[in-house]
Inverse folding.
């Protein structure tokens, strides 16, 4: 490896390292919740390796437990992951020229943390070429992604030992609220979340968990419409 | 109990679908711009889907056969308030869980 490439890799690894403290408890929680849902250790690990997306994994698992149809579980979890397509679009100007197999690997490891670190680093280091940018990306992945697998495994092992009176059914709601609350930065985001809550409760009687689809779509349309109004009035501030 | 065939179907298809979303632009579409109206809706997917999943779980917890529970309601409110005020995900999970256990303990 070229010198500047190597230093970009290690800079990525350093920037990614603090996320170990975010990813580890989250992965462990997924392992514990999977064990509670009756998944064995191999199934929990397979979930984390194949999907490698926390919120989507929790969504799918929750809906499977609620006996939702496969289609609804898949559609909801993929909707949660739609932001990955935006990450992919945002990194394309920087990494789009990498060889096909590298782009495949980058896509697999494209998660919230690797995306956030990389976009900021590319902004700071405008002189970086493709080699440095790619090396940096893989650097950020190195501490984060293996930890996701390992801590899922630990959680799945520990989970079978936790008795039911610890109210673990509420781990998913608390985690999701904690993930969503910091995103409510603009009036559009707050309105989207509020409409989605009201619609989800109001349409909970629909079969096949379709109330979730209705609420999700209504929330997205609300957010987009409010954003348009705010932009028209000139009061829109990027979150 | 989750049906194993359904579980593996979801794991495999969700894995393929998530990869497709991540690969979409990087691998296939390249630098072409997405329509602005689509981007504007995509910005709100997370804040629209996650609350819709959570709301019924908070209002009618399955563990209590759908009986509304003050301890779970309080825990949800504390998590939301702390997350909104501090933007600290781990702190809000810890304080939310603390509220839940305190509430369950007080309720006996």
């Amino acid at each position: 490896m070229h010198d500047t490439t190597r230093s970009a890799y290690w800079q990525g690894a350093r920037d990614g390292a603090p996320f170990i403290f975010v990813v580890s408890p989250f992965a462990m929680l997924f392992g514990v919740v999977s064990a509670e849902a009756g998944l064995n250790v191999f199934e929990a690990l397979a979930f984390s390796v194949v999907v490698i997306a926390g919120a989507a994994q929790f969504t799918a698992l929750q809906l499977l437990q609620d006996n939702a149809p496969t289609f609804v579980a898949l559609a909801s979890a993929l909707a949660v992951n739609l932001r990955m397509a935006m990450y992919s679009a945002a990194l394309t100007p920087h990494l789009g020229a990498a060889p096909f197999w590298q782009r495949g690997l980058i896509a697999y490891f494209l998660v919230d943390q690797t995306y956030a670190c990389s976009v900021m680093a590319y902004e700071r280091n405008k002189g970086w070429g493709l080699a440095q940018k790619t090396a940096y990306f893989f650097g950020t992945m190195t501490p984060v992604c293996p930890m996701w697998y390992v801590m899922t495994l630990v959680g799945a092992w520990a989970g079978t030992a936790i008795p039911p009176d610890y109210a673990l059914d509420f781990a998913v709601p608390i985690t999701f609220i904690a993930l969503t609350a910091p995103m409510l930065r603009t009036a559009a985001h707050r309105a989207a979340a509020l409409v989605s809550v009201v619609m989800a409760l109001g349409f909970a009687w629909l079969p096949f968990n379709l109330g979730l689809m209705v609420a999700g779509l209504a929330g997205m349309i609300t957010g987009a419409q409010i954003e348009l109004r705010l932009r028209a009035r000139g009061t829109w501030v990027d979150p | 109990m989750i049906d194993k065939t359904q579980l593996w179907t979801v794991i495999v298809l969700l894995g393929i679908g998530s990869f497709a979303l991540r690969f979409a632009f990087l691998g296939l579409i390249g630098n072409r711009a997405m329509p602005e109206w689509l981007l504007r809706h995509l910005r709100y997917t997370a804040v629209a889907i996650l609350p819709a999943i959570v709301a019924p779980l908070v209002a009618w917890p399955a563990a209590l056969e759908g009986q509304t529970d003050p301890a779970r309601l309080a825990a949800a409110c504390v998590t939301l308030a702390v997350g909104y005020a501090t933007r600290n995900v781990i702190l809000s999970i810890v304080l939310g869980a603390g509220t839940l256990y305190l509430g369950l303990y007080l309720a006996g």
Summary: The first helix of chain B runs from residue 4 to 29.
